[in-house]
Amino acid sequence: MCPICYTPIGVIHTPFHEPQGMPIQPSAPGSGSGFVEVFEDYATGLNHIEGFSHLILLYHFHRAPDAQLQVTPFMDDHPHGIFATRSPTRPNAIGMSIVRLIDRIDNRLYVDQLDMLDKTPLIDIKPFFEPYDNRTNTRQGWLNTRKTIENTRADGRFA
Fold it and tell me: How far apart are CA 143 and CA 66, in angstroms?
């Protein structure tokens, strides 16, 4: 199989320097504010982005340990297949978060609802568009019996 290579388009700056104790999802209490620094070579790609309230950030889990196909996620006490979780220990260490856009100044996007480590490499940005991105009549699998996100923080198990 041929390798797939991505070049980061920027860096995500957050208040979280260690995995332990950070929020596990953007909607969790304690998620942080910070900024996305888009490299100058890609800055013109930000034109008209300020019209969106939310953005989808795709990024590289740069400090995740080696991939595991079975994990016990933060929201449960039982192991699940990696593809049934949002654990960072993925075969391709790609993360995704929906964040709220506060402001754009030049090549910086000021955002909140961050749930990734400081200096996370940014792979891509997509606008969140509610008519396309929200769904009704969905199933949530094992997450229907999960712990509450309000009291769950990263405990270092994926560090």
Answer: 24
Burial class (CB in 10 A: 0-12, 13-18, 19+), 88: buried
Report the alpha-carbon distance of residue 130 to residue 139 in Å, rounded: 19
User: Helices then strands (H, E): number in the chain?
Assistant: 1, 8
Q: Which residue type does 119 have? A: K
Q: Hey, is 3 helix, strand or coil?
A: coil
Distance CA 35, CA 72 (A): 31
List pLDDT tens digits, range 103-116: 999 999 999 999 89
* Cα(21)–Cα(76) distance, integer angstroms: 17
- Using CA atoms in the order 105, 111, 115, 121, what is the torsion angle rounded to 10 degrees? -20
User: What does the pLDDT look like over 17-54, one tens digit per residue?
Assistant: 987 877 767 776 667 899 999 999 999 999 999 999 99
DSSP string, 60-104: E-TT--S--SEE--TT-SS-EEGGGS--S--SS-EEEEEEEEEEE
